[in-house]
Inverse folding.
């Protein structure tokens, strides 16, 4: 009876193979192809020659690429502090008993992350515009800090502020809500009893956030940081919309540089090398950050616990060996 | 049991196929409405402007229809990719002419379906580069001058040398315009669509009169003097937009540079004969002067590196700037916008770039030419009938009908040197015509030549240069390095 209801293994396999095939086609094939193209002098078209590690040598010497990598790291740091930091604070505020209409706060907080990054870029380009932008309108017409829009600061590419800081603000703004929702769900899973007893013990809101909530959702924050790094290592859309990497190459990021090399300069071989570079560097940064976080986020108690566990394991192993020896003799 | 298994397999297959179909059906479905709108756009212009429009169209269409009706054996589809969108055609003469000619050709050849894939220019460049990389170019498309050498070497584009020579209109072709589409002595495209000048100073004569100049100054020193007056008034002297990074090259340096290098220098650069280098004194001097004008004086709008030419020309239109530098497309847009304001359009005048300080080769120059040409996919040569149809199409689109249409309606020139009636032209179109083809020496547009990687080094560098982040000598050295790499290929 049960067998007639349960589908055959092959059927299940056929269904499950569809996403696997899609994954192979959309992720693995391009990855392997890029790896191969990265070793050629492909300029577009059917002709390509294998040129060994020339492209990789060029990549190591390419100042623009390393400058772009630096910009990506800047974005990572700015966004970890900006996105996750602010999201954590907002979650604490939204979760407060004093806050009314929590659902609305959540929804509106999340709203920007549903917009395409390209649109966000275009919107912020308008906000930053020297002659017609919202910021300069506020500075000129409301605060009267400058005489006329022409004398107001040029935000995108001017000397008013570092260009990468200007470009990271829209990114931060867009994704605060995204991390807010993740952190909110982690916080809501904390037993209210813990927080209530802390409150009875006299811990204020700040102390509760730092000593109770923070350690308890540490693993979620871990995931957030990883997502944030991965997201910013491939930053492209909003920067493409706002500055196209300019002025000059001052706001270039790795993905945009790879795109420019591939499609503006038609160096598809070298463009592929750059994308392999992005892959390797992203893995390295994510791996490095995991290592650092693991060390940074485990406190003495955890370490002591781990040490005890190790000793216990070793004793268990020794005991097992002894038993086996005893059995043999 | 059997049935159930069959169903499972069928369903999964259907799902996979559906996904695949989603991808492929997208192209024709977007192409279809585009070609429709091409017809309606042409019909609209015909209605609105019946007199001047129908005369050249009738006159020229006759020979084309005659030859094609008898000769063309091909029945089927031609895939055609270009960037003359219907939005672009409003106010842009060459684009309007191109679309009208496409519609006329389609009508004369009912047996051939023209699958048009029309993208905005910036998207077009990326898309066509991707298609070239995948060896999947459409049958007929617009080739950018800078891609000629590379794509010809890859065997992607058909050698048109003999076809151009044996064309019935060959005697009327302006062969000089073929230079950007020449590789190793062979021609690969017929110049089409966006001809015309790339650098023109558009100014408001009344404003300059107030500043004490009866016409636009002939030296940059005088422009700087005028800028003191304009700055006091709180308006910009000249509006310029280099936010897209190509404008400074195409619409400024590519004309200004010749004042220091002379025209022969660039001929040597194109030829790659080693007699010219980007590190030559003349070119470095031109870069230095460019830096001086943009970074050290207050002539231009301070945000020139973050706004595009489309933004900057609005400053001029709104009266926030006394002049604007751009190409013929900007000129026709500005004229189209101001034409109902009799006073403003009356004050709108044009001038050549003034003389830079210490310029050694100054003349009245403007850079002119065709950035794009109609090319045929090399694979089409396998199908003789189809090839004939494609040749007929490009000869029509680059031939007398196009030249007469854009000439008599907008005062623009084509690949075919047509005699056209200028009586129907607006005074401002006549001005541009004289500026582009009669009064001034024409020089080559830099980025119609060489390869994208050279200009992709120079263009961002120009932004760095004019925002004070680099100096002329090192930018010249970087460009030369990219140029040498290009020659080495």
């Amino acid at each position: 009876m049960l067998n007639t209801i349960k589908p055959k293994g092959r059927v299940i396999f056929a269904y499950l193979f569809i996403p696997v095939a899609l994954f192979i086609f959309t992720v693995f094939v391009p990855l392997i192809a890029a790896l191969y193209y990265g070793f050629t002098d492909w300029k577009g078209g059917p002709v390509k020659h294998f040129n060994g590690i020339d492209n990789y040598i060029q990549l190591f010497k390419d100042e623009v690429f390393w400058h772009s990598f630096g910009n990506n790291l800047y974005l990572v740091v700015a966004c970890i502090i900006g996105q996750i930091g602010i999201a954590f604070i907002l979650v604490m505020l939204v979760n407060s008993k004093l806050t009314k209409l929590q659902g609305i706060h959540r929804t509106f907080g999340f709203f920007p992350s549903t917009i395409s990054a390209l649109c966000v870029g275009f919107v912020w380009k308008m906000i930053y515009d020297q002659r017609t932008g919202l910021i300069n309108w506020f500075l000129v017409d409301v605060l009267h800090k400058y005489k006329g829009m022409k004398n107001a600061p040029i935000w995108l590419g001017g000397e008013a502020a570092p260009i990468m800081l200007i470009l990271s603000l829209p990114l931060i703004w867009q994704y605060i809500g995204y991390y807010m929702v993740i952190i909110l769900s982690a916080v809501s899973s904390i037993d209210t009893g813990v927080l209530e007893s802390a409150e009875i013990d006299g811990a204020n809101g700040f102390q509760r956030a730092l000593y109770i909530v923070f350690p308890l959702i540490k693993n979620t924050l871990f995931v957030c940081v990883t997502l944030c790094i991965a997201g910013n290592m491939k930053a492209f859309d909003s920067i493409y919309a706002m500055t196209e990497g300019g002025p000059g190459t001052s706001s270039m990021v790795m993905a945009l540089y790879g795109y420019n090399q591939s499609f503006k300069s038609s160096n598809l071989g070298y463009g592929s090398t750059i994308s392999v570079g992005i892959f390797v560097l992203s893995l390295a940064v994510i791996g490095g950050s995991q290592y650092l976080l693991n060390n940074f986020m485990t406190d003495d108690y955890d370490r002591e616990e781990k040490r005890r566990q190790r000793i216990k394991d070793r004793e268990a192993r020794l005991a097992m060996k002894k038993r086996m020896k005893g059995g043999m003799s | 049991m059997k049935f159930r298994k069959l169903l499972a397999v069928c369903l999964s297959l259907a799902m996979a196929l559906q996904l695949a179909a989603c991808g492929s059906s997208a192209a024709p479905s977007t192409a279809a409405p585009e070609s429709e709108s091409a017809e309606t756009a042409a019909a609209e212009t015909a209605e609105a402007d019946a007199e001047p429009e129908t005369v050249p169209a009738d006159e020229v269409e006759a020979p084309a229809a005659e030859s094609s009706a008898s000769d063309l054996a091909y029945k089927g589809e031609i895939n055609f990719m270009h960037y003359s969108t219907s939005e672009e055609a409003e106010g842009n003469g060459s684009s309007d002419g191109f679309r009208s000619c496409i519609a006329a050709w389609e009508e004369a050849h009912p047996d051939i379906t023209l699958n048009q894939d029309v993208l905005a220019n910036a998207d077009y460049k990326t898309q066509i580069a991707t298609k070239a990389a995948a060896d999947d170019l459409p049958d007929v498309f617009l080739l950018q001058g800078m891609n000629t050498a590379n794509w010809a070497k890859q065997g992607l584009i058909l050698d048109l040398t003999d076809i151009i020579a044996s064309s019935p209109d060959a005697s009327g072709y302006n062969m000089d315009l073929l230079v950007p589409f020449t590789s190793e002595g062979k021609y690969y495209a017929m110049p089409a669509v966006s001809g015309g000048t790339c650098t023109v100073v558009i100014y408001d004569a009344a404003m300059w009169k107030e500043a004490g100049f009866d016409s636009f100054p002939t030296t940059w020193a005088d422009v700087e003097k005028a800028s003191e007056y304009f700055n006091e008034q709180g308006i910009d002297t000249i509006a310029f937009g280099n936010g897209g990074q190509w404008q400074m090259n195409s619409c400024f340096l590519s004309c200004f540079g010749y004042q220091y290098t002379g025209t022969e220098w660039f001929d040597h650069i194109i030829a790659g004969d080693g007699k010219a280098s980007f590190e030559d004194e003349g070119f470095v001097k031109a870069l230095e002067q460019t830096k001086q004008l943009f970074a050290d004086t207050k002539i231009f709008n301070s945000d020139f590196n973050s706004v595009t030419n489309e933004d900057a020309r609005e400053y001029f239109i709104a009266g926030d700037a006394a002049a604007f530098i751009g190409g013929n497309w900007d000129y026709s847009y500005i004229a189209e916008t101001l034409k109902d304001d009799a006073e403003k359009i009356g004050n709108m005048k044009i001038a050549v770039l003034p003389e830079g300080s210490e310029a050694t080769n100054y003349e009245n120059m403007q850079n002119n030419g065709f950035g794009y040409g109609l090319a045929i996919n090399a694979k089409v040569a396998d199908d003789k009938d189809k090839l004939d149809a494609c040749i007929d199409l490009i000869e029509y689109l680059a031939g007398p009908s196009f030249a007469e249409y854009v000439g008599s309606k907008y005062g623009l020139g084509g690949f075919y040197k047509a005699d056209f009636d200028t009586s129907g032209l607006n005074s401002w179109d006549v001005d541009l015509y004289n500026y582009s083809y009669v009064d001034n020496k024409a020089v080559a547009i830099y980025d119609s030549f060489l390869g994208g990687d050279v200009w992709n080094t120079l263009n961002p560098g120009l932004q760095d240069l004019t925002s004070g982040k680099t100096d002329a000598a090192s930018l010249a050295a970087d460009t030369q390095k990219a140029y040498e790499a290009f020659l080495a290929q």
Remarks:
- The domain at 49-296 of chain A is CATH 1.10.3720.10 (MetI-like fold).
- Chain A has a mean pLDDT of 88.
- Residues 63-95 of chain A form the longest helix (33 residues).
- Chain A touches chain B through 42 residues (CB under 8 Å).
